[in-house]
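User: structure tokens for this one?
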Amino acid sequence: MLTGLNHLTLAVTDLDRSLAFYRELLGLRVDATWDAGAYLSLPGLWLCLSLDPQRREESAADYTHYAFSLSASDFPVFVQTLKTANVREWRDNRSEGASFYFLDPDGHQLEAHVGDLSSRLAACRLKPYTGMRFFSES
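Assistant:
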């Protein structure tokens, strides 16, 4: 039986550029590096950057993305830091909670989000998506 998310691995085209992005702009801790990769972390998250020259630097056209949590009080400064660094947005926020959707240097679609599953479900109970069904009370 699965017990949780183990780690994320992102293919990158320039390891130094990606390390700087995740360390300096997003604040992840660098735990290890090697010629073709790096391990970074946040509490509860293990992220692997894997050098892959075949990775295209274009954003995918779908909604696949990786979301990071942050507090409401940190959100405005975080977003301003990314905008000042000319980080590209890929979508506007259309859901509950403050969110900023942005691209990393290789076009991976990321999100900074205030809230959690409980707050999302509470909002959806008030205004459900088309055809939405709930399977728990919380």
